[in-house]
TrEMBL record:
Homodimer. GO terms for biological process: glycolipid catabolic process; glycoside catabolic process; oligosaccharide metabolic process. Residues 317-405 form the Alpha galactosidase A C-terminal domain. This is Alpha-galactosidase. The keyword Metal-binding does not apply.
Amino acid sequence: MMASWKSCLWTVFVLCLLGKISGLDNGLALTPPMGWLAWERFRCNTDCKNDPDNCISDRLFRTMTDILVSEGYAAVGYEYINVDDCWPERERDPRGRLVPDRERFPYGMKSLSDYVHSKGLKFGIYEDYGNFTCAGYPGVVGHLAGDAATFAAWGVDYVKLDGCYALPVDMDHGYPEFGRQLNLTGRQMVYSCSWPVYQIYAGIQPNFSSIIEHCNLWRNFDDIQDSWASVESIIDYYGNHQDAIVPNAGPGHWNDPDMLIIGNFGLSYEQSKTQFAIWAILAAPLLMSVDLRTIRPEYKAILQNRKIIEVDQDPLGIQGRRIYKHRGIEIWSRPIVPIQGQYYSYAVAFLNRRTDGTPSDVAVTLRELGLNNPAGYRLEDLYEDVDYGVLSPQTKIKVKVNPSGVVILRADAQPSFAYNAIPTRTPYAPLNDIFRLTRK
């Protein structure tokens, strides 16, 4: 398996060199970014006098940096500490430069960035392609080159560019231009765009060819809120629009369904497991927005599940699909490594959207899931950590899925001695290779 994984990673690398995988030419985000982002949990709390522990401040981000390292998050792949809105002063300085809030960030952003880097992590920041940010702070319009240079001087590794107070029709020019300015600084910075979602809201069809070319990741849908209804709406959007969404994802360019809210107030334990599993199937960025100081152990364990993170970070970068939906039961499937001949391995998530209070049994053969490798698949439950051994495509499996819960399995394709030493494979075409289940 390790040899196959390395082979696939090398294939992705070579394809990038040959220009076969098109995307922003900064060599970054070849797997979905992972880290911590302030917005959903801490919003725009600037009241450091009355709430010093939770306000948007230098102190908050240094604390989360320390915890990301000391509590094992960095060890499983979370590497970005991302500041969101509400960090600057309300006015630029006399030279037109952005200035961090002098009371809440008294040492400046370069000092904070240096601290994050000293812990082996990377530093992200927020701005807006508009006159103002969503919370009313200065936007980048009129200052694209200067702000890009400022971020580079501060040692920024990741820039999220929102789209409030901007004309969606101008974004087709503005977002690529700011990305160009970021690249001209000579510093590599992941570029997260809100470009398509604002155009979709305005009734404009986004040019995803251009978005893929200029952005490392982008938002398609609503901001996530701290509720199961919000998570469900995002899952539905990605399932209902998957024919248009899935082909856009790949190494260096990702669909972003928004932050992980696991460990906050709005999701149950089962619902938290569901968000993490489905985000992995979607090849989504894993950006936690949670108070890491108070998170309960069972939610921390979800966020640090190495086997599900491995699915999310699969080097092929193929986004998964919803392949079945009937009477509240959904099945989602994602091709992953290792590949044996023409057969992919898969991560498969069984989702129970029912609310009738009792677990549901789902029975299906591997063949009905589209798993046709004659040599079979080694099946493993990634939450329960149970290895079911090698099963043939004809084997019928039955899983018990809790209400609003999930079961996520990994099916590793097994080698066959009938294959040649250098196997060939059929390229995965998401628009054509749609798996179908037999409904009984």
